[in-house]
């Protein structure tokens, strides 16, 4: 019985490992490449436990043409596991430096992320509070809803159809909507969407 439970837990870990969560399985590495209308970012992190990951993040902010490098830590504060659903609550924070036109400033950010899903439905919310002294400051909110058009087995190619909304007070085009599709198989995930403002969103995640 113990071996069966261990095998089931391992399957669940690897199925969820390819999803866009900020922590991998213990001892796992993750590469995340994110591109949307606001920024391009690359993030690589290591998860010493199921509760924590730490890594390096580079981001280019399009509006201010700013490069930001930070040491980022993600913490799982609470997870709810039920028979047919799961929910998670995280906090994500980083400290580092921002560079704009040869000028360097300390930079920091923090925010929460939460998600709830079944094998058919998905919802999520996240926010981010960013500060880089005289270079840039912003608050950003993102929310998603999604549905799986079919229910795949472990090892299959899984597909989600999603709708993302984003709100950044004070920004040009402060509200946006992006339909997108998510594919994941094993430990690899790809998302692609096209914003109603005409911007491409393309995200890639690989767990090792």
Low-confidence stretches: 1-18
**SSE pattern:** HEEEEEEEEEEEE
DSSP helical segment count: 1
Relative helix content? under 10%
The third-level CATH topology is Porin
Q: What does the overall shape look like?
A: globular
What is the name of the CATH architecture?
A: Beta Barrel
As laid out across the biggest beta sheet, the strand order is 1-2-3-4-5-6-7-8-9-10-11-12
Domain tally: 1
Structural class: mainly beta
Seen as an oligomer or otherwise, the chain set is: single chain
Count the strands? 12
Task: Write out the CATH superfamily name.
Answer: monomeric porin ompg
Distance between the termini: 28 Å
So what's the CATH class?
Answer: Mainly Beta
Largest sheet at a glance? 12 strands, antiparallel, barrel
- Kindly estimate the percentage of residues that lie in beta strands according to DSSP: over 45%
3D structure, described in words:
The structure is a single chain. This protein has 208 residues and is mainly β. It has one domain (2-207): monomeric porin ompg (Porin). Helices cover 8% and strands 64% of the residues. The protein has one helix and twelve strands. It has one helix at residues 2-17, and strands at residues 28-35, 39-49, 52-61, 66-81, 86-100, 103-117, 121-131, 137-147, 158-167, 175-185, 188-194, 200-207. The protein has a twelve-stranded antiparallel barrel. The longest helix is centred in the N-terminal third of the chain and has 16 residues, at 2-17. The protein is globular and about 50 Å long. The relative contact order is 0.16. Mean pLDDT is 89; it is low at 1-18.
């Amino acid at each position: 019985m113990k071996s069966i439970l261990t095998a089931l837990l391992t399957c669940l870990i690897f199925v969820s490992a390819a999803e866009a969560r900020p922590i991998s399985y213990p001892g796992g590495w993750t590469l995340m490449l994110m591109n949307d209308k606001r920024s391009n970012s690359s993030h690589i992190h290591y998860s010493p436990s199921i509760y924590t990951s730490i890594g390096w993040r580079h981001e280019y902010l399009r509006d201010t043409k700013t490069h930001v490098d930070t040491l980022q830590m993600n913490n799982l504060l609470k997870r709810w596991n039920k028979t047919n659903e799961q929910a998670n609550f995280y906090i994500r924070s980083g400290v580092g430096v921002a560079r704009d036109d040869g000028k360097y400033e300390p930079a920091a950010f923090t925010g929460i992320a939460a998600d709830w899903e079944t094998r058919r439905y998905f919802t999520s919310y996240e926010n981010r509070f960013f500060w880089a002294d005289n270079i840039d400051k912003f608050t950003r909110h993102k929310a998603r809803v999604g549905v799986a058009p079919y229910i795949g087995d472990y090892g299959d190619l899984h597909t989600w159809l999603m709708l993302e909304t984003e709100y950044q007070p004070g920004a040009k085009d402060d509200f946006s909507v992006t339909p997108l599709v998510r594919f994941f198989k094993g430990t690899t995930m790809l998302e692609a969407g096209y914003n109603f403002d005409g911007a491409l969103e393309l995200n890639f995640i690989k767990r090792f």
